[in-house]
Amino acid sequence: MALTLDGATPKTLGVLDQGALWANLAVSLLGFSGALLLLNPLGDAPLSLAAALTATAVGSLIGTAMVGLSAIPGTQTGKPAMVLLRGLFGAKLSYIPTVLNIVQMIGWGAFELWVISNGAMAIFGTAVPYAVWVLVAGAVTTALTIWPLGAIRLLRRYVTIGVIIAMVWFAVDFLGKAPPQTGGDWSAFAPAVDYVIALSISWVPLAADFARHSRSSRAAFTGVVGGYTLAQIACLGLGVYAVALAGASAVAANSTAVFAPFVAAPLGALFFAILVLRETDQSFANVYSTTVSLQNLMPRVDRRIFSTAIGVLTVAIALAVDVTSYGAFLGVIGAVFVPMFAVLAVDYFLLGGGTRWNTAENAPARWSMLIPWALGFAAYWVTTGTPTVEAWDRIWLPLREAVRQPWMNGALGGAIVAALVTLLVGLVGRARAK
What we know:
The protein has helices at residues 15-26, 35-39, 49-77, 81-89, 95-124, 130-146, 148-177, 189-201, 207-211, 217-246, 248-253, 259-264, 268-278, 280-297, 303-320, 327-350, 370-383, 390-403, 410-433.
């Protein structure tokens, strides 16, 4: 596999490889505790079980369709995600989203090491200190990042089967123990869909990093949509019952409390250990995406050097920072990358950008593409109903109250505005050229 950005991109991954990768990425240990936000995204208007499951299906399909479409240019050009943005914004302007992506991916990588370590401690207790688990998880993550295609094949051949068995085992146990899920209504359906879309859309910035190794665009798209959608619905559905067993108040106070029902199940420690081990694919994906994002800035540096350095950095952050909540962070990610995806999709697929996509180091700046991205970012905050940071939300509150519709959410609002403005900018540009 190429070690620098100048090297050839091998096309070895089929639809089963992509499907296994994205199915595993959709199953997250703290994704189970995410059912708490799914069931009550506003904090005062709980959803019924039917509404929550419907929101999960709708949000997953919308979000994974976006991720799947963002993967196709990577397959067709052979370029990672941040390098693709040279064609959208120009080489120098692509550094803006690249830096944002590097910051968020390092944060997510450290967060996943924290999750893995707490999951291991839920099984083994405090006999092995937290710091030791972080170091072990960091070493495994770094090794997987150095050999990424081998890691994906490992997921397809072995890990996915174990995860399926574990999920089925826990589902049978939880359904027999959990109290009936009654009450609630559909009033917070749109914010719940917003939350699920944000869970999916957080992968847009790295979809092409793996899709560029796909044998075809169809394999990349099908693997993303099929694998991730089914697994995310299963993960959040199982999370509803895990939260019920652990206690919503306990999970709200400490998200790792959701681990208790898993470990308490018959053979729970064994099957939960499979899920903990599988969580390294999350940290691997984040560190690998950071690595190839850095290559957009420094294209001729050996990615193994970046992988080792980022692996050490994420370990250091995981040892120094305690992460307790990430719902607000998902809203910020959605606001940045949903409109950016919409701009890319319209320009690449509808305005003929795919035939002239320039990913060279001297690709000219396209300042006009910043306009729809910025307006889409603003539209996201105007139309979202999901709370994030109180002071930030307060800025947008008057506009939200003026335009709020029960069917609208931030992801749809941001994507629609960004897409329409991109289309307008493109048509105006064509008219001037003629």
